[in-house]
Specification:
Helices cover about 30% and strands about 25% of the residues. It has about 850 residues and is an alpha/beta fold. Strand 54 (about 795-800) and strand 55 form a beta hairpin. Helix 8 packs across helix 9 and helix 10 packs across helix 12. About 50% of the residues are buried.
Length: about 850
């Protein structure tokens, strides 16, 4: 299968398809074809799409490699399985093997075929254990190898194994009956799930040999380092000298040059006196290394010329590159075909130069040219793009993020932009707006408003999406850029991957002067939000109850909206910190806890009915009852669920898998559990078929998307601390009860949680071991998010990998001590597994 574009490898693939990218001077696909030939497979079908003629011209009919090649070219992409369906007439008589044309492997084909035949499998997936499975398809098998579950490109919380799909399969012809010719099918997303659903023999074969998915520049270099070190059985051409130095017979090497193995020098190379080549260097055909030059851990393609005293350190130089005298290419840089690097110029770490660039003498190249990338390896973490303010997340990066999102939405789209009150957020948002407008996307700028209002504005203005910039609520040194879809939800993981692809390729076209996007204000957003909110509640009970509420706005933008809104509803409001002051906003859990303690004291002193701390972004809320007792976390979730269940008998709830078991008791079992990521909770709340009346998490985030008896209509299904407070007051008034009475009637809740540090490379191994162990045990196990194991209905432990190098362990028990002991026990277990 050789139809992929190899976009993540650009500029290596700017002028050639990925299967023709060289490994030790030989195209990846040639290594594969030769390996197949050594195993006795001499008739090979090649499916093509991107730059198909390049591959056909290079390999011809395959006779030079001792095989017969059949080519099938897709006019439009047909998917990994649909492309193979084209060749059914050739492949349809017997078992056939599918291999990827852009991965490097020396797996034992005969051994895999024997295992496939012995299991009488209809399809066998060749599997491999990796340290970080997130970029692959994770596969879980039973002891006999039968596949029970797989998941494409999981997040850490979905990693149940470190065994991944290599994209190599052994298939029986009967599988073709599941497809129609000319239609698009994917093996992992369409065909294998159907085989699994029909309980047909689908097995996994775990290979023990070498395999590398050459999907990034780092992996491209690593694959060659590993070949040089002898980690594969693939042959290396050239005469082997001591120290694993492989030299082509016609290479010319000065006796005064120094060679440090492992090293591969291709045919026609010339290395001058005083040059130092190696270790872990690959010189393709015709490379010239000048006097005194240094080439270390670098991959040099055909015809590269390294000038006198020049240096190439851990870099990739594509075909025909010229490196001038005393020029330097630093670690991780990639220089495209036929670039000329002038005398004394420096290409800094991680820079990418697209083909045919001329760099003037003594230049310092600190930014990629034309279609570049940055040294960031992944944009999204959690619910957005995080980074150190004005360092990792700079105006330059923000502008590129805006252009990226605009390119995804297409020119002519409208985006709502928002920020918090911090000056850095204003700066970065303006850079984002510039990027959006530069690709022809217009902006409706809400400026500094509570986030729920900005999300509401997306639908009010029929926008295609939204962007919000704010200081990380748990880390004041960081900023978060969050992207929303047209409903105000966080964008999906799939959309995140598309944005990353556009960003790293810089695949966006600048608009001409007549098509640059507009920037429009949104002066009526507060009025529109207020009207929308008031139409979704029953105001009469509130007006009659006349609550005395102490409201802490945490120096955020809610101070311009919420006090006046509560006053309209007949509440006597004592507002604290109801003005915007970014320097005083609570930026850590500890600072918010301090505000909550102060609020409790004021509530007691003034004899108020209730106190509310609405987080500065307006999304989350914490309460204080009339006695000054703080109600937050799981207790607040349970309290609001109890109120909702009484106010709306038969109501259905959505909560994360980490919520206490008391939720089922309160809601009489009408509970839908989701992953802890807020986007899953929001999606569940929005689904019409679920009829969710309330959704909430353990951090004060609540959604009330359902219909009230007197208000009616669906409000926005995203977190809104202001609306949650109003709904709480409405329900308390309607039921003629108090927050103290509600909390007193709750079933007991005993939760404990711990964070366990774990190297990223070990997380897949840990998840696999725990999943296998617990699945084989007597207790009930859930894999909604991470691993949740039950000892009893109200005694469980949840283990979830974080996006960083850690696990979160949460436990519920029959007492606080029991919960703490469970969490500590599993945390210690994880620590022991990683040494």
């Amino acid at each position: 299968m050789a139809g992929g574009e190899g976009t993540r490898l650009r500029p290596l693939t700017s002028n050639r398809p990925k299967p023709l990218v060289p490994i030790l001077g030989k195209p990846i696909a040639q290594h594969i074809i030769e390996h197949l030939a050594r195993a006795g497979i001499t008739e090979i079908v090649v499916t093509l799409y991107y730059l198909a003629e390049e591959i056909q011209n290079y390999f011809g009919d395959g006779a030079d490699l001792g095989v017969k090649l059949h080519y099938f070219i897709e006019d439009t992409p047909l998917g990994t399985a649909g492309a193979v369906k084209m060749a059914e007439e050739i492949l349809g008589d017997d078992t056939f093997l599918i291999v990827s044309g852009d991965a490097l492997t020396d797996f034992d084909i005969e051994k895999a075929v024997l295992a496939h035949k012995a299991k009488q499998a209809e399809a066998s997936l060749v599997l491999y254990s990796v340290s970080d499975p997130r970029e692959f398809g994770v596969v879980i098998t039973e002891e006999d190898g039968r596949i029970t579950r797989f998941l494409e490109k999981p997040s850490w919380s979905e990693v149940f194994s470190d065994t991944v799909n290599t994209g190599m399969y052994l298939i029986e012809p009967s599988v073709f009956a599941l497809m129609e010719k000319g239609k698009s099918y994917d093996w992992s997303q369409d065909i294998f799930p159907k085989l699994l659903e029909q309980n047909r023999p689908l097995f996994g074969y775990v290979m023990e040999e070498y395999w590398c998915d050459v999907g990034s520049h780092d992996q491209y270099r690593s694959a060659q380092y590993e070949m040089l070190e002898g980690k594969t059985q693939l042959p290396i051409e050239g005469e082997e000298r001591p120290g694993r130095v492989f030299v082509a017979k016609d290479a010319v090497i000065s006796p005064e040059a120094k060679l440090i193995g492992p090293l591969c020098i291709g045919p026609g190379c010339r290395i001058e006196a005083g040059a130092v080549v190696g270790p872990s260097a690959v010189l393709g055909p015709g490379v010239v290394v000048g006097p005194g030059a240094t080439v270390s851990r670098s991959i040099l393609w055909r015809g590269v010329e390294i000038g006198e005293d020049a240096q190439s350190i851990s870099a990739v130089l594509c075909g025909g590159v010229t490196l001038g005298k005393r020029a330097k290419v630093e670690e991780g840089a990639v220089v495209g075909d036929r670039c000329v690097i002038g005398r004394g110029a420096t290409i800094r770490q991680g820079i990418k130069l697209w083909p045919e660039k001329n760099i003037e003498a003594k230049s310092q190249v600190t930014a990629s040219l034309v279609w570049g990338t940055t040294i960031r390896q992944g944009l999204f973490r959690g619910t957005g793009v995080h980074g150190l303010t004005n360092r990792e997340l700079s105006p330059e990066l923000a502008s590129k993020l805006g252009a990226t999102f605009g390119a995804f939405l297409k020119p002519g789209a409208t985006v709502v932009t928002a920020r918090d009150g911090h000056p850095a957020s204003r700066m970065l948002k303006r850079a984002l707006v510039s990027g959006l407008c530069s690709v022809g996307v217009s902006c409706v700028d809400t400026q500094a408003l509570p986030l729920p209002l900005a999300r509401t504005a997306i639908k009010l203005h029929s926008a295609k999406g939204g962007v919000n910039v704010r200081v990380d609520p748990d880390d004041p040194e960081n900023t978060i850029v969050e992207f929303y879809n047209g409903e105000g939800f966080y964008i999906t993981k799939a959309t995140e991957r598309k944005l990353e692809s556009i960003y790293f390729r810089e695949d966006y076209a600048r608009a001409d002067s007549e098509s640059v996007g507009r920037i429009d204000p949104a002066p009526t957003t507060i009025d529109e939000y207020r009207s929308l909110l008031l139409s979704r509640i029953a105001p009469r009970p509130l007006a009659e109850r006349k609550f005395k509420v102490v409201l802490d706005c945490a120096f955020g933008t809610t101070g311009s909206v919420l006090p006046e809104l509560l006053g309209r509803l007949g509440c006597d409001v004592i507002a604290l910190n109801a003005y915007t002051d970014w320097s005083r906003e609570p930026r850590t859990p500890e600072s918010r806890s301090q505000l909550l303690g102060n609020l409790a004291q004021v509530v007691r002193t003034l004899g108020a009915d209730l106190g509310a701390l609405v987080h500065s972004d307006g999304e989350r809320v914490e309460l204080v009852d009339a006695s000054g007792n703080a109600v937050y976390g799981a207790k607040l979730l349970a309290a609001l669920a109890s109120l909702t269940a009484q106010r709306h008998p038969g109501a259905r709830f959505a909560v994360p898998v980490s919520a206490p078991s008391a939720m089922e008791t309160i809601a009489d079992g009408r509970v839908a559990r989701t992953q802890t990521d807020p986007r899953f909770l929001m999606t569940m709340a929005y689904l019409p078929g679920e009829k969710i009346v309330m959704a909430g998490d353990l951090a004060g985030g609540f959604i009330f998307p359902g219909h009230s008896e007197e208000g009616g209509g669906v409000f926005h299904p995203t977190f809104d601390g202001m609306f949650a407070l109003v709904k709480t007051l409405e329900m308390l008034a309607f039921l003629q009860t108090s927050l103290s009475d509600v909390t007193a009637s709750l079933p007991p809740i005993h939760l404990a949680s711990l964070a366990v540090e774990c190297p990223t490379d070990d997380k897949g191994m840990v998840m696999k071991a725990l999943t296998q162990e617990l699945s084989a045990g007597p207790g009930r196990v859930e894999l909604i998010d991470g691993i949740k194991t039950y000892d009893a209905p109200d005694a469980w432990t949840l283990i979830v990998p974080d996006s960083g190098p850690r696990f979160f362990v949460q436990a519920e028990g029959v007492s606080d001590a029991d919960a703490a002991e469970r969490a500590a026990s599993w945390a210690a277990r994880i620590e022991s597994m990683v040494g």
